[in-house]
């Protein structure tokens, strides 16, 4: 190739790049983007987003730029943070119209091993398919959960017996993780309890959870590297479970759990899911049912432990339910409907310490909100942080007050959304409610407790964690 050809190619490439830059700048000038800052090159504002308090990150920018919307660059993406109850309503009302679910790049790498390493976005299956498979057969509907409730109660009793009986002090958070993973293991996989296996899985899932919102640096010592290693180990174990399930199904064993459904369900083309895909989807469900429920249980123990008056009200409600039952009779659906005050306490726990701060969406088409345009391809982030502790919606927002849910019609619509809303409301909401109420009933009928570290530091990024595991001193009746 001669010098003329090379120079011609160079000029052509340079012209294309320059044209693209000029077009992008021209488009940006003609588009009224939300106020805000993209932060540092490449990193954007990710570090502050992950390592400062979520409420502070959001509220500082709402005060500086707009109470309705601001722009930022987090997790490698240009992002519009839409705030307040009107923002929540707008997002929940426009699912799959203006935007669709988006998983951070670290999540995609951890939970999408069955896809090619660089899938084309236009051909990648939508993230909503991961929950559609459990919505359709109704595994998480009340009637299905009612059948599982007795087992949930007996597992909780067994674990309290084995981990708390005869002890003066325990760490609440590690126990909550064992409990929730055991329940999820039984409900999603149909697996019986195995304490050694559960303990191993807890360590793996802790690593996975830490890497869900991490920078993709697959280097030893980084959160993403640890998460990736843990995901490989969990995937390997799940594939072993899947093979065993397939053999049992082939031998005519009747089973009713989510894993079995995933094994036999076919897509519109009559194709079964591959084992890696099943493993990744189940792993995602286990992580979701593990970390958020465990976090709520831990902080529930914290807030109730600080308030003897609230403890007594819960005890009175739960004792009335217990006295109406025969000896050895397990909890039933009707019992859960009587736990109104107990549920208000749990709601207040999730308001003060949300187990999940928020989630991302991907913009499908340009749209305008609050007078600003959000371009196609951007990400939208909705967060509980713009409402949960806002005095405009919650009087004395830092006070733990379960009675606020009894006043009038409760909180202003779209101000309290721990499970999201609209078509993508968390499908596990009822499962979480039953698991936490079952735990609370069993604990409060046997124990009083006091916090050993009253002002324990809360660490973590998107998922809050008590630094010392929330140790308590037990007093058995």
TrEMBL record:
Topology relative to the membrane: Single-pass membrane protein
One GO location term (cellular component): membrane
Transmembrane segments: 6-23
InterPro entries named among the record's database cross-references: Cyt_P450 (IPR001128), Cyt_P450_CS (IPR017972), Cyt_P450_E_grp-I (IPR002401), Cyt_P450_sf (IPR036396)
Gene Ontology BP term (one): sterol metabolic process
Superkingdom of origin organism: Eukaryota
PANTHER family in the record: BETA-AMYRIN 28-OXIDASE-LIKE, CYTOCHROME P450 26
Stated family: Belongs to the cytochrome P450 family.
Record's protein name: Cytochrome P450
Organism in which the protein naturally occurs: Anisodus acutangulus
């Amino acid at each position: 190739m001669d010098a003329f050809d090379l120079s011609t190619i160079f000029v052509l490439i340079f012209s294309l790049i320059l044209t693209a830059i000029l077009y992008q700048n021209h488009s940006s000038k003609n588009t009224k983007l939300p106020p805000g800052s993209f932060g540092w090159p490449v990193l954007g504002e990710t570090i502050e987003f992950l390592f400062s308090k979520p409420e502070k990150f959001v509220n500082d920018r709402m005060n500086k730029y707009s109470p309705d919307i601001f722009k930022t660059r987090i997790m490698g993406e240009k992002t519009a943070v839409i705030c307040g109850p009107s923002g929540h309503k707008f997002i929940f009302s426009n699912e799959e119209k203006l935007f669709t679910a988006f998983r951070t790049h670290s999540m995609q790498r951890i939970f999408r091993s069955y896809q090619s390493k660089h899938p084309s976005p236009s051909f990648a299956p939508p993230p909503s398919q991961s929950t559609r498979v459990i919505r359709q057969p109704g595994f998480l509907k009340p009637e299905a959960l009612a059948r599982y409730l007795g087992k949930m109660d007996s597992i909780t009793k067994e674990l309290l017996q084995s981990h708390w009986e005869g002890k003066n002090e325990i760490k609440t958070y590690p126990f909550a993780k064992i409990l929730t993973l055991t329940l999820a293991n039984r409900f999603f996989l149909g697996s019986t309890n195995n304490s050694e296996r559960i303990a191993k899985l807890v360590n793996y899932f802790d690593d996975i959870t830490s890497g869900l919102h991490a920078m993709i640096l697959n280097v030893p010592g980084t959160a993403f590297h640890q998460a990736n290693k843990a995901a490989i180990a969990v995937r390997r174990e799940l594939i072993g479970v899947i093979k065993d399930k397939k053999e049992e199904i082939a031998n005519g064993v009747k089973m009713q759990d989510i894993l079995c459904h995933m094994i036999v369900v076919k897509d519109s083309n009559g194709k079964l899911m591959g084992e890696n895909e099943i493993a990744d989807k189940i792993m995602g469900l286990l992580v979701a049912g593990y970390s958020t429920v465990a976090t709520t249980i831990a902080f529930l123990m914290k807030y109730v432990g600080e308030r003897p008056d609230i403890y007594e009200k819960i005890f009175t409600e739960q004792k009335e339910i217990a006295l109406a039952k025969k000896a050895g009779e397990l909890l039933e659906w009707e019992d859960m409907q009587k736990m109104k005050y107990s549920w208000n306490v749990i709601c207040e726990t999730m308001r003060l310490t949300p187990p999940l701060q928020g989630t991302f969406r991907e913009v499908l088409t340009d749209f305008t909100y609050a007078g600003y345009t959000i371009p196609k391809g951007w990400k939208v982030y909705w967060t509980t942080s713009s409402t949960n502790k806002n005095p405009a919606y919650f009087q004395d927002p830092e006070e733990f007050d379960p009675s606020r849910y009894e006043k009038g019609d409760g909180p202003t619509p779209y101000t309290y959304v721990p499970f999201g809303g609209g078509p993508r409301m968390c499908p596990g909401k009822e499962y979480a409610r039953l698991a936490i109420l079952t735990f609370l009933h069993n604990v409060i009928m046997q124990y009083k407790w006091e916090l050993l570290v009253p002002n324990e530091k809360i660490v973590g990024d998107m998922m809050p964690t008590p630094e010392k595991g929330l140790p308590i001193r037990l007093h058995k009746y």
